[in-house]
Amino acid sequence: MLKTERVIDLPVTVGSVESLASEVIQVARDGHGGYVCVANVHMVINARRDSNLRKVMEEAFLVTPDGLPLVWSLRQQGILEAKRVTGTDLTLELCKLSEKLQISVGFYGSTIDTLSALKGQLSDQYPALKVVFYESPSELPLHPVVDLTVVDYINKSGAKIVFVGLGCPKQEYWMAAYAPHLSAVLIGIGAALNFISGTVTRAPSWMQNMGLEWLHRLFTEPRKIWKRYATTNPVFIWLVMKEFFKSKVK
Question: How far is CA 135 from each of CA 49, 138, 201, rounded to the nearest angstrom?
Fold first, then answer.
């Protein structure tokens, strides 16, 4: 049984990429639907500021700690088994298991060019993986109105797992709106589609292991990333320190 802990009063699931992927597979095979949030500092801080996003996170059946700061916060609380589970690693593990277990998957989001590159990469890595659709939607509003045509399309596709790459928080709101109407498990993976497709280079392993993937992204995607880091990382550090000293006083 996977444990859900709290980081600055928001849920984070503790487990390895293998255990989290196994849980997703079980839910997908049961046809219960639901969704998974892949949380980093950006998402967590925005959820602190936005009660609607907080509600979305609270209702996810898994919230993986994508960012190492979340893992460090958990370990500071004495949860030493906490591990980082990125959207990229979770997606690849699920593709591997889905290929082995003959579970159909779909991809929803990003651009046509990225999805085309993704298709090529997955065909090479997982030749027997059954991908029933690669769908790049037109521009969507932040808070979507459920389109029954999309619901019908996904349900009829036979996909048991749908990887959603619309960016945070748009993909989280999309999943929360659509999940009650779909039998597939939805997983918000954001930039993972870019990394897996090869359209954006992921940080080398040594940088990932040292918690420096943020620095690599800052240099490779400065326009997209700098403001996010500047407005959320200092707030996260302050809130974690505040909780730490508060616990020491108790």
Answer: 31, 10, 22
Q: Which two tokens stand for residue 201?
A: 């280079």
3 state DSSP class of 162: strand
**73-89 exposure pattern, b = at least 16 Cβ within 10 A, e = fewer:** bbebbeeeebbbbbbbb
Closest Cα to residue 137, out of 177, 108, 170?
Answer: 108
Q: State the pLDDT at residue 99.
A: 99
Query: DSSP string of 5-38?
Result: EEETTEEEEE--HHHHHHHHHHHHHHT---EEEE
**CA dihedral angle for residue 238, residue 14, residue 204, residue 211, rounded to 10 degrees:** 20
pLDDT single digits (tens) 72-97: 999 999 999 999 999 999 999 999 99
Tell whether the torsion through CA atoms of 24, 28, 32 and 34 is positive or negative.
Answer: positive
Q: What is the three-class DSSP state of 131? A: strand
> What is the pTM assigned to this prediction?
0.91
Confidence of residue 111 (pLDDT cuts 50, 70, 90): very high
